[in-house]
Amino acid sequence: PRDPMKWRGRRTSTNISDRRRGGTGRRVARTGGGVGIVGILALLVGMYFGVDLSPFLGVMQGGSVASAPSHSAAGPNRIDDEMEEFIAVVLADTEAVWQQEFQIRGGRYQEPTLVLFSESVGSACGFASSASGPFYCPGDNQIYLDTSFFTTLERQLGARGDFAKAYVIAHEVAHHVQNLIGIMGQTYAARARATEAEANAISVRIELQADCFSGVWARAVEQRFGVLEPGDIEEAMNAAASIGDDILQRRSGRAVVPDSFTHGTSEQRQRWFYTGYRTGQMERCDTFAAERL
């Protein structure tokens, strides 16, 4: 077996809220505020963007921008198990990478909270079960993850390895990045006046952009921290392929219907992830200007 990515013993994020055991979770208080990143990615100005509500790796849209209740730590922060430690390390890496990306563009990155849950969870975007898969809620700037999804990813979808899991987390963080730079703010108007097929097409573009941003993150992690092992990028590519709309429709025994796609094909997801990884540039992730997805 190949060596896993080097994550053990590394810095962990404190922005984890663990609700898996019926508690209220823990959340490290931090200063809020706007992102202050006006003008970032000029190529995106004037375009319209969409968000998907698919059960796999999607973004859940809130009907309001009300904040979810915050949860204060009852005691010292602690890592409860190995899986939480792994997630906290990956989240810390996303924080470091996106802080730098925003800083070089004159902005400030506002870190999201990642909520671990089991079976079901409430958010500013509503109630969700584990069957919803991981999701990002722009209403409270939080990522929600039932770690049982990693078992599904490996055993049912065939995407194995630590970096496959890291890709899942990076993808959801990428939706947070999209929210901060104003992409999701343009989502609602665009989808409201679109047909179902058009709304799906918009969703595909935002999901592929999140895949591309995930590739940008992977390149930065490799260059800055040197923690990737041979085969890690292939694990992420395999994970991206395993959750393509065409593959998921075939697995479910349905006909492949492109107009119903909300995330993109396996080939598209792999290609846009690799575009971000190969270039390391957010600006190369403008899926909305691309003639060929």
What report would you give on this structure?
With 293 residues, the protein is an alpha/beta fold. 40% of the residues lie in helices and 8% in strands. The chain is built from eight helices and seven strands. It has helices at 82-103, 148-156, 162-180, 187-192, 196-225, 232-242, 245-251, 266-279, and strands at 16-18, 58-59, 113-116, 120-123, 126-129, 135-137, 142-145. The strands form two sheets. The chain has a five-stranded mixed β-sheet, with helices on one face. Strand 6 and strand 7 (142-145) form a beta hairpin. Helix 6 (232-242) runs antiparallel to helix 8 (266-279). It is globular. The protein starts with 15 loop residues before the first strand and ends in a 14-residue tail after the last helix. The model is unreliable at 23-77 (pLDDT under 50).
